[in-house]
Design brief:
- It is elongated and about 95 Å long.
- Strands 1, 2, 3, 4, 5, 6, 7, 8, 9 and 10 form a ten-stranded antiparallel beta sheet that branches.
- The longest helix has 15 residues.
- The N and C termini lie far apart (104 Å).
- It is built from five helices and ten strands.
- The relative contact order is 0.11.
């Protein structure tokens, strides 16, 4: 059957769509982007929301000179909230960063200054659902060997606890003495910790120098 010329012309006229305007295209693009936006996350508590808003850092983490002061990549945490939020007392200028969960246990590193203005860095574990603090381990601190009548000059210096954390949550804590006389550093010992399924820190090894050498 042959369609008439008039019918073909009529079909062509009725099916013709006008080209979209610039305004139509912008509106369509905006709707498309809105449809793909992630929905805002809902939190079970104010504690969870604050901790999840902290910057995130992957493992491993290894101490480098100045780490304790710079706290690069950490986010600010109000010192007044640190005791209830992370279970750590007595720090000012506090900053924190989230680490990968250890199984279902949440892990955070928090740093700041103690009452003497010395830097302190601690690792904190938090309960899976309640986000309440479980345990804390000091990763970095300084202790000055003060002079008295029994102290030799070569024994004056600064004792520092430094750290490194592997991707398997093996936490190496090394005690380093730095002399005030010649600034030489000496390794006094190494302890290794990990995190149990209950979120508490436990010791794997003690005084294993150079990550596995024989005890002295």
């Amino acid at each position: 059957m042959v369609l008439s010329t008039a019918l073909l012309m009529g079909w062509g006229c009725n099916s013709r769509r006008p080209l979209p305007t610039q305004e139509d295209l912008l509106r369509e693009d905006s709707l498309e982007r809105l449809a793909h936006l992630e929905k805002p996350r809902t939190y079970g508590s104010a504690e969870e929301e604050m901790i999840m808003s902290l910057p995130y850092r992957t493992l491993p983490v290894t101490y480098e000179e100045g780490f304790e002061r710079a706290l690069t990549g950490f986010g600010d945490v109000p010192p007044t909230m640190v005791p209830s939020l992370l279970g750590v007392e007595g720090l000012t200028k506090t900053k924190a960063v989230r680490l990968p969960d250890r199984d279902s246990v949440h892990v955070v590193i928090v740093g700041g200054e103690n009452a003497d203005g010395a830097p302190v860095v601690q690792m904190v574990t938090l309960a899976p659902k309640t986000w309440e603090p479980i345990d804390a381990l000091v990763l970095y601190e300084e202790t000055e060997v003060e002079e008295d009548e029994f102290t030799d000059e070569e024994d004056l210096g600064l004792i520092r606890v430094e750290f490194s954390v592997t991707s398997r949550y093996e936490i190496y804590m090394q005690e380093v003495f730095q002399s005030f006389v010649d600034e030489e550093r000496s390794l006094e010992g190494v302890s290794v910790f990990s995190i149990g399924s209950d979120g508490r820190f436990f010791q794997l090894e003690h005084n294993k120098l150079n990550h596995g050498a024989e005890d002295e």
